[in-house]
């Protein structure tokens, strides 16, 4: 594959993956393109590289900024903004934890609906598994945040 | 809400949640109904409770068995099988880890496509976050498996 094809492949793969995280595919592709860039991009550059409409780029960038995955940079003397990828997946992971916590709440709510003790024990077991899972993920995120604070700087750029 | 409505609500919620885990909604609803039952179900009972076709129940049960979320039990003197929920979410979580590992591989593959050092450092940081995340989840699953072995019995019923 040529470098251009590989780049397009990377961008499309990010679109697919972020779609499975409940983000629109175009938003994921924009993130993929931004991740490969050393310098911030203009909206026009993204539009041209990804074959998207101006509206799609605008919507996608707004989504990325709201998820902490990108930030906009004002340009002095211009109304146009530059866009830069941030590595803020912590926020998406936290949202995924929230969904899992909601799932656990549904499972726990089933405790008063079960037919008997065997079903109650099984439900408790499944709920416990997911609680252990989210707890492990949250401890990891906290440890990471602690390491960043100890180092005196965020390892991952945060949205301003 | 009546008990019946609550039960239907639980079943539909499981359908929604397992759909976000890439399982068909009917499959998730069958799992929800099985989770609440103390005794194994017949295919006919599931069909009647969930308003599904025989084919949909059959497909859903097959999916659940293949994911370790249910097991079938032969009935002596009959060709019919009973179905029982298992708590085997370990397999689904492992599949989720596999998807995340594939995502990390895509991110790592971007290292040779980046424009420069800043993009390389950011990509490495994002990849590291996901690696830490999957590692934490896998350690949790392993610790749980260890606890089960130590107790001399599986806490969560496994597929036979």
In short:
Chain A contains 6 helices and 3 strands.
Radius of gyration of chain A: 20 Å
Major sheet summary line of chain A:
3 strands, antiparallel
Mean pLDDT of chain A: 87
The most extensive interface, with participating residues per chain, is: A-B, 51 and 52 residues
**Helix content range of the residues of chain A, please?**
55-70%
Ends apart, CA distance between termini of chain A? 38 Å
Describe the structure.
Two copies of one chain form a homodimer. Chain A is mainly alpha-helical. Helices cover 66% and strands 8% of the residues of chain A. The first copy, chain A, has helices spanning 3-20, 25-36, 43-50, 54-66, 89-109, 117-150, and strands at 41-42, 70-74, 81-85. A three-stranded antiparallel beta sheet of chain A has the order 1-3-2. Mean pLDDT of chain A is 87; it is low at 153-160. At the A-B interface, α1, α2, α5 and α6 of A face α1, α2, α5 and α6 of B.
């Amino acid at each position: 594959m040529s470098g251009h094809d590989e780049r397009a492949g990377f961008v499309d793969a990010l679109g697919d993956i972020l779609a499975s995280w409940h983000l629109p595919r175009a938003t994921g592709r924009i993130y993929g393109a931004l991740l490969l860039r050393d310098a911030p991009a203009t909206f026009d550059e993204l539009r041209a590289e990804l074959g998207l409409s101006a509206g799609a780029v605008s919507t996608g960038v707004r989504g990325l900024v709201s998820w902490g995955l990108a930030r906009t940079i004002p340009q002095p003397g211009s109304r146009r903004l530059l866009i830069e990828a941030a590595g803020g997946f912590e926020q998406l992971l936290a949202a995924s934890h929230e969904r899992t916590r909601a799932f656990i709440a549904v499972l726990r709510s089933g405790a008063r609906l079960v037919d008997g003790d065997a079903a109650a024990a099984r439900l408790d077991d499944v709920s416990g598994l997911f609680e252990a899972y989210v707890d492990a993920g949250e401890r990891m995120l906290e440890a990471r945040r602690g390491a960043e604070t100890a180092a005196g700087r965020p390892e991952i750029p945060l949205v301003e």
